[in-house]
Amino acid sequence: MMPATTRRAIDSGWTFRQSGAERWLPAQVPGSNFTDLWRAGVVEDPYHRDAEPRLQWIERSDWEYRCTFDVTAEELAGDSVALVFDGLDTLCDVSLNGAALLSSDNMFRSHRVEVKDRLRVGANELVLLFRSPVFYGEARQAADGFTYPAENDKTDVHASVYVRKAPYHFGWDWGPKYVPSGVWRPVWLDVVRRGRIVDVQYRIEALSEAQAVVAFDVAVEGAGEVEIACDVEGIAPVRGTTARVVIDNPRRWWPNGLGEAFLYRFTATLHDDAGVIDRASTRVGLRTIHVRNEPDAIGECFEIEVNGRRTFMKGANYIPLDSFLERVTPERYRQLFRDAVDANMNMLRVWGGGTYESDLFHDLADEHGILIWQDFMFSCTLYPSDPAFLANVAEEARQQIRRLRRHPSLALWCGNNEVSLGIAHWDWPTTFGYPPELFERLVTANRDLFERLLPELVAEQDPERFYLPSSPIGFWNDPADDCRGDNHYWGVWHGEEPLSAYAERVPRFMSEYGFQSYPDIASVEHFTDPEDRVVGSAVLALHQKHPRGDAIIGRFLRHHYGEPRDFAAFCTLSQLTQADGLRIAFEAHRRAMPRCMGSLYWQFNDCFPAISWSSIDYYGRWKALQYQAARSFAPLILSAEPVDDGYAIHVVSDLIDPIEAELVAERIGFDGTLHWRLAEPMTVAANTAAIVAHVPAAAGDVLVSRIVAASGELARDVRMVRDATACRLPDPGLSVRIADGAVMVRAEQFARAVKIVVDAGNLTDNYFDLLPGEERRVTLRAGRLADDAAVAASSLVDWIA
């Protein structure tokens, strides 16, 4: 039976114009002025070549949107009729039928406005005026008389701090300065008849192997009774706006790699004698999450227990998937989580310079067992503290906490990204000329925001979840802080320390670190013309947002591999440098378990075509880093650590059960000649990291370690014992063919970093080492290759001049 209360989207018939212009153009809602102008042919592709500086005028204008929508007499007869705005970006004055309705100044808030008395049967006109966030910021900055230290903000006045809008829109060191305006989330007409369900929340009161008790709280407007029913057989429905459901023999929700992310779907139905009034569903994941951040014998731990199990967090920092958020389709979200699962991740950090993600994003995190570290949207700067700003933030936070707290994947809340680090180490008073009393006032005000206001709201709205005021706790500038909480280690990139430093600087939880690379040449060709494809060209410089990025990439790759053969080789070698560097970090973090209990690299994805820290480029192509993450984050890995007299062989297991197997370690020549061998039985303990063997210094070019069981090879570690610049790699004699929908690639001699190129999509593995005489079968991650598909394979020797 259809509910009496209904909702319909107002998503057609929209037009827009630059404020004061005569011509109205078609608009898309949800959408933005940038994409509407692009679609109308008024502006060029914002992502192609050097378009960015030519489009800066858009942010310095006001924009008007309007539409006419019909309302029926039946709708207007509802007990309540409301317009719901899920997201207005950002400074927006709304009028309905010529009368002011709403003023919004926060992209992250939704609005519900009763309009029954303002509507009429038939046509109704909705008009939205979006004012320039940059002009607003300029006026506020002029009134303040000083500039906030938002150094990634590329506007002259650092306008982003004044506007509750996605900070990355104003520029970052991996993204453009595109400051859009528009209706970025849907607009709805809600017709309430007899009542409505406002919200459905739940709390797990008890959870054991035998039984779970889930307490529901259903907020209702109007009359009627509530029934709560589950889609799993054997769970009896309950009645009441507050009710407890008992689940016998409950199935737990587990993160990816530890078990099934099982979800119970519950539907609350509001009804009366006349029938169903309203319905709302939510999904329940039965799990416990405990974040431990407390003093211990080493210093200050930071770790996450899931269902009572200490769990090493493997994953990445996530930024918005596009500079224009309306371009992020459901399929792009689904692919994002497939990519995370395929890389053996169990956590993503939603970083505080982007946006609070969509309901679909969090639903997919629930389904795939990907825990979410959720920042509030504050990053890398101090913020205003006037009462209006704080009240705006408080309502923003309250809405977002209530929206997201129902998700079993939500692991913790974090107040901001790197504000405490900036206060301590970025010398803002000198850079921005702050008098001591002004800086102290700004710092005190921000502590009030992150150490009082936000934690009070979390305690009020989501009391069972952990709140962290600022990430990181420990600062990479001080090596002593490696024993203290989470850390963002940027010594290798910003400090230009050697890649080996990743193994030396291991904190209790690494929540941010990274190294840049270029996208594949095929991706570069999407956003450039042939004459642009030179390192340092004017066009590529606009897609490389870090001022020293190209120089750092070039120095490191030449040090480790030699001179690139051409620009395409430079792109590939940059990715190999990135992957090899972060492999050191991945394995060092995992080897240090349980001292270190997390490794979240920077960054998972791109918001536009960029030279950046991402492991997946804007077009969805996996870089070498993403393939390396999949290998290094596997549930069972071997890691050969260089030590003074050879190598220590570590085994790291996230598995629930122990394994009986054999350890085989060999040192071989590039041609396969065996120089040294060890083979001995071993027991791989569950959820541990341990040294299981020592390989002495001996002849040979390659160290190969394996864990072998009756079922076959369970884990493998392959590494050259010298850098490519210190030895002469042979031609590996690669051959490649398509067989039964898969790629078959073979090496006659050792092949370092075999790269397979196909046009059809990402592969199950790539940039891997092949042993002499070894043939590997590689498939597409989705689908199969045609027998006549074009395929090519190359390796390190092919990319060096």
Instruction: Calculate the mean pLDDT score and round it.
Output: 97
The secondary structure category is alpha+beta
Which term fits the overall shape? Answer: globular
Q: Major sheet, described briefly?
A: 6 strands, antiparallel
Say how many strands there are.
Answer: 44
N-C termini distance = 71 Å
Helix content: 10-25%
Q: Uncertain regions: pLDDT < 50 for 5+ in a row?
A: none
- Total helix count? 15
Task: Describe the strand arrangement of the main beta sheet, using strand numbers.
Answer: 3-2-4-9-6-7
* Proportion of strand residues: 25-35%
Question: What Rg, in angstroms, do the CA atoms define?
Answer: 28 Å
Architecture overview:
The structure is a single chain. This protein is 21% helix and 34% strand. The protein contains 15 helices and 44 strands. It starts with 5 loop residues before the first strand and ends in a 7-residue tail after the last strand. The mean pLDDT is 97.
Walk me through the topology.
Elements: E1 6-9, E2 15-18, E3 25-26, H1 33-39, E4 63-71, H2 73-76, E5 80-89, E6 91-96, E7 99-105, E8 111-114, E9 122-131, H3 133-144, E10 170-172, E11 175-177, E12 182-192, E13 195-207, E14 211-222, E15 225-230, E16 238-239, E17 242-248, E18 264-272, E19 275-284, E20 289-292, E21 303-306, E22 309-311, E23 313-318, H4 330-342, E24 347-350, H5 359-368, E25 371-375, H6 387-404, E26 410-414, H7 419-425, H8 428-432, H9 436-461, E27 466-468, E28 474-475, E29 486-488, H10 501-504, E30 509-512, H11 521-527, H12 538-543, H13 549-561, H14 567-591, E31 598-601, H15 624-632, E32 636-643, E33 646-653, E34 659-668, E35 674-684, E36 688-696, E37 702-709, E38 712-720, E39 735-739, E40 742-746, E41 751-758, E42 768-770, E43 775-778, E44 791-794
Parallel strand pairs: 23-24, 23-31, 24-25, 25-26, 26-27, 28-29, 29-30
Antiparallel strand pairs: 1-12, 2-3, 2-4, 4-9, 5-8, 5-12, 6-7, 6-9, 10-11, 13-14, 14-17, 15-16, 15-18, 18-19, 20-21, 21-22, 32-33, 33-36, 34-35, 34-37, 37-38, 39-40, 40-43, 41-42, 41-44
Helix pairs in contact: 4-5, 6-9, 13-14, 14-15
